[in-house]
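Example: LysR family transcriptional regulator.
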Amino acid sequence: MDLEAVRTFLAVLESGRFGQAADELSITQQAVSKRVAALEKELGVRLLTRTAHGAEATIDGQAFLPHARALLHAEARAIASVRPGSRALRVDVIGRRLAPAALLRTFHRSHPEIELDVVTLFDADAAVAALRSGTIDASFRAVTMPGRHLPEDIGALPVLDEPIELLTGPAHALASARAVTPARLAGHRIWVPGIVSGTEWAAYYADLAAEFGLTIEVTGPDFGTEPLLDTVADSPELATFVGAGTRLVWPEAHDLRRIPVHGPTPVYPHSLLWSLDNPHPGLLALREHLAAAGTEPSDAAALSGASGTPTASATSATSGPDIWTPSWARQRTRRPAL
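Written out as structure tokens, the predicted fold is:
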């Protein structure tokens, strides 16, 4: 149904004159008559009749009147639903326990007026496809893995270099260490069952293992975080890697240890991605917030807040040049060390 014809019908009925309706709509009186006639033809009934007092609704016109108004109200709501700033900013955070989710929570505390819709997508390819289709407004990802390039219409802002920590049970050989070097981890079994071939995090851990001669095992199904923590807690041999900003809670009896890795400090490079033609004002606010925050590796652990206090790496992580990240990762401009 032609909504302009419906709008014209209402204008004639409310003004009582075809000529006055034409003035209100900034069209000719002839165009008004044609629109009303086309609508009547589509409906198969006469909607208006001319009288000495002006245009009046017929019985069918009176029946159609509330529905005509409802159509225009629905049109207005539909337009408002996609008007920039009128809908929630949809952001992909990879996982709700991970550091990007903490970054987004910090943004929300600073900008409570911006409604957020938080989602989790699988990998960078899925995130880029969603950005280009308009399904999401922004995504936190490590980019770009070897052999991949971001499309020209996708923007990227490096926002966080997150230190990687070693997580062990109390019986592990390294459980009492205050910190370890990557070289010291050679020969130890590091189990990361969530690695999926072809993803950006698979590329990251492959480069990490190759750089420092590590043994990173991906065998077995990924049953989630809690079974992983149960297995590591009971094992004197297995350890795993976690991001310093990852929120983890475990039973007290597990007595798990989060051990900083330094010399150099491996960091996972998070970037914010967005479509360059996305006009959502909340997106600009998010980008400006993250650019101003300039989170350092030494700040990342404090984002986790899992137990209300920072982990060891929140006070001992090294900032500046003594970090490692894959050569393919987008580099973030770091503040000078104080």
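The first strand starts at residue 48 and ends at 51.
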